[in-house]
């Protein structure tokens, strides 16, 4: 065994495993905490508790009662933030109450995006768009009307344009999701 190897924990834990990710995200308060930290560089546990309490109680931060805030604060301090710290997603200074996201939090963004049952996910949308594109190519190849009325180059320009516009909208919506002030699951309740 190498003399330099030790059983001491490293400064930075490895990225969470898939099982740890699902365990972390199984709790709404941890999801809310991660969502808040995606948009903030550093915050305090008090500020985080107020924000989460407001989301949970469907009110503004100013309307949160001290009981609601304390309930969330205690759970964050005793359970959720230590768990997020153990998995390497945040660094939590218990003395100052400062909570700082690690670079690993950015990887959680894909798990935090919520697609409701009545919405198409982007992968389903692009799959459908690809099927339409294949249909257009087959119709052009077979010379079916109205596809033979325009040149194949115009049709291909149309298809490429559809993908370009879709990608631009996807990018815009993803950027707006990142900048949103509340988690998607809270936004859907409104």
Automatic annotation (TrEMBL):
The chain crosses the membrane at residues 125-144, 150-169. InterPro entries: DUF7344, WH-like_DNA-bd_sf. Keywords: Membrane, Transmembrane, Transmembrane helix. It holds the Pfam family DUF7344. It comes from the Archaea. Residues 22-99 form the DUF7344 domain. This is DUF7344 domain-containing protein. The lineage of its organism: Archaea, Methanobacteriati, Methanobacteriota, Stenosarchaea group, Halobacteria.
């Amino acid at each position: 065994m190498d003399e330099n190897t030790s059983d001491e924990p490293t400064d930075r834990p490895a990225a969470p495993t898939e099982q740890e990710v699902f365990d972390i995200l199984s709790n709404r308060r941890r999801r809310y905490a991660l969502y808040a930290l995606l948009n903030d560089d550093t915050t305090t546990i008090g500020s985080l508790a107020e924000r989460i309490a407001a989301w949970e109680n469907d009110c503004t931060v100013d309307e949160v009662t001290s009981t609601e805030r304390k309930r969330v604060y205690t759970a964050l301090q005793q359970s959720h933030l230590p768990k997020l710290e153990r998995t390497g997603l945040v660094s939590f200074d218990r003395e100052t109450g400062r909570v700082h996201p690690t670079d690993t939090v950015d990887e959680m963004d894909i798990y935090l995006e919520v697609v409701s049952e009545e919405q198409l996910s982007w992968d389903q949308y692009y799959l459908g768009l690809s099927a339409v594109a294949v249909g257009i190519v087959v119709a052009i190849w077979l010379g079916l009307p109205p596809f033979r009325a325009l040149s194949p180059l115009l049709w291909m320009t149309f298809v490429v344009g559809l993908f370009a516009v879709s990608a631009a909208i996807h990018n815009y919506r993803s950027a707006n999701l990142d900048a949103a002030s509340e988690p998607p699951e809270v936004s859907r309740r409104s």
